[in-house]
Amino acid sequence: MLTLRAAVDTDIRRHGRESYPDECCGALVGRGGLVTAALALPNAAGETARRRFTIGPGDYRAAERRATEQGAELLGFYHSHPDHPARPSRYDLDHAWPVFAYVIVAVEGGQPGALTSWRLREDRSAFDEEPVTVEETQCQPGF
């Protein structure tokens, strides 16, 4: 199971809305299945950014470095699917790695909707959906 801090969920959805009608993408940083930060990254897909996302090698290395600086690890990546369901595409399958979580947010007409998380099988044949929850923000009295 993957758990997103409430601020991470907000950041991913905001990025999807701001990037629409193109796909947005970014890195998921945290530890032990808890995502504590979403690092927005540039979509290097160029002219195909409306239907694809690509993370350049320099941006990938920068995300790993930022995770290490935060005492965390790179847990995976997120991206949006403009006007399409939050399900992995064939392109997503062909470019994924088994060790990472892949969060997809559907953005319909510029409005973020369903958010799902996926893991690539070790044999790279398909994705399996994993439960994703958003950690509730706890307000303490007097704060």
Could you give a quick summary of the protein structure above?
With about 140 residues, this protein is an alpha/beta fold.
Record keyword descriptors for this entry.
globular, 23% helix, Cytidine Deaminase, domain 2, 8-stranded mixed sheet, 143 residues, 3 helices, 38% strand, alpha/beta
Describe the structure.
Helix content is 23%, strand content 38%. The radius of gyration is 15 Å and the shape is globular. The protein has helices at residues 6-19, 57-69, 90-95; strands at residues 2-5, 25-31, 34-41, 73-82, 101-108, 111-120, 127-130, 132-135. It has one domain (2-135): Cytidine Deaminase, domain 2. The chain contains 3 helices and 8 strands, in the order E-H-E-E-H-E-H-E-E-E-E. The protein has 143 residues and is an alpha/beta fold. It has an 8-stranded mixed sheet.
